[in-house]
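Reading group handout, session on sequence-to-structure problems. Before we discuss, look at one worked example. The prompt was deliberately terse, the way you'd type it at a terminal:

> structure Acyl-coenzyme A thioesterase THEM4

The input record follows.
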Amino acid sequence: MKGIQDYYPDHFAQCYGCGRLNEHGHQLKTYWEGENTVTKFVPKEYHTAIPGFVYGGMLASVIDCHGTGSAALAFARQQNIELCEHNAPRCVTASLQVKYLKPTPIDGEIEIRGKIAEISERKAKIEAELFAGGKLCVTGEIVAVLVPDNFGD
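And the output record:
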């Protein structure tokens, strides 16, 4: 399944977490499932904190990229953008809050589900929940800001 990240312009597709052009990155894909957003990821053994559990910084990283991807989906919807090759809006993180509720097992797929809590002209707030084995392990709140196409020039 394609995610919003597949539609980012090439100059915005290098992100370690979600850039399709970053061969060393996580290659996250975020997509709509009803009114919520979803990202799935299988941690590798080298993402270990304590044997059997995922490193917390890694979890923050996937929540962060899920949040910016969710915001990009929300802006595309808000602006009536029909996604096609490399026309997706791109966002950066303005704020990230992560709460670790329980250790996250490393032995299977994790799923991050997002809700668009607020959206304005340039800013979106995403509420995220990270599940492992069907159990809620981490929550996050991401404020993402829409960037212009010439961002970083």
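Points for discussion. First: Residues 56-78 form the longest helix (23 residues). Second: The mean pLDDT is 94.
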